[in-house]
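Thread amino acids onto this structure.
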C-alpha cells in the first residue's frame, strides 16, 4: 500500500484550500466550507439565472392605447378616465363630447363596461337616430349625427 498515492477526496476543495493557505487564510476551514457549498452552488445559480432570464424575456409592460384612424382622421389615444363603470346617460354624454369612436372595444375600455353592453347602447342610440354606425373593414366606426335644425 505504501507505493500507492493518496488521492484527494474533493480536488476542488483541496485546490481552493491550498490557494487559501498561500494567501494566509486557514486552508482546512476553507476546504470544509467549499465541500459544503460546492453541491449547492451550481443548482442555485441555474435556478436564479432562469428567473432572471424569464424576467428579461417576458417583461411586464402595460400596453399603451393604440391610435386608430376613422374616416381619415387621426384619433387621440383612448385613456381610462374613471375606475367605475359609466351609466348609459353618462356614456352618451361622453360620446357626444368625443363625436366619433374607432370601435366598440375602445368605448368598452373607456366606459369600463362590457363590449356587449356597449353594443346594446349603440344599437339603441342608432335606432333613435342619435348616432350612425358604418362598417370600415372588420369594425363598425361610430359617428355622432348632427342635431337637425342646427
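Threaded sequence (150 positions):
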Amino acid at each position: 500500500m505504501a507505493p500507492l498515492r493518496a488521492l484527494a477526496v474533493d480536488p476542488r476543495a483541496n485546490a481552493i484550500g491550498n490557494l487559501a493557505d498561500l494567501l494566509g487564510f486557514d486552508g482546512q476551514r476553507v476546504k470544509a466550507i467549499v465541500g459544503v457549498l460546492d453541491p449547492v452552488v451550481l443548482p442555485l445559480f441555474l435556478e436564479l439565472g432562469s428567473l432572471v432570464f424569464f424576467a428579461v424575456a417576458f417583461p411586464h409592460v402595460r400596453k399603451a392605447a393604440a391610435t386608430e384612424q376613422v374616416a381619415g382622421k387621426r384619433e387621440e389615444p383612448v385613456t381610462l378616465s374613471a375606475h367605475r363603470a359609466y351609466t348609459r346617460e353618462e356614456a352618451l354624454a361622453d360620446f357626444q363630447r368625443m363625436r366619433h369612436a374607432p370601435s366598440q372595444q375602445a368605448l368598452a375600455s373607456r366606459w369600463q363596461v362590457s363590449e356587449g353592453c356597449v353594443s346594446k347602447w349603440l344599437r339603441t342610440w342608432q335606432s333613435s337616430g342619435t348616432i350612425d354606425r358604418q362598417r370600415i373593414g372588420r369594425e363598425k366606426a361610430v359617428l355622432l349625427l348632427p342635431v337637425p335644425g342646427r
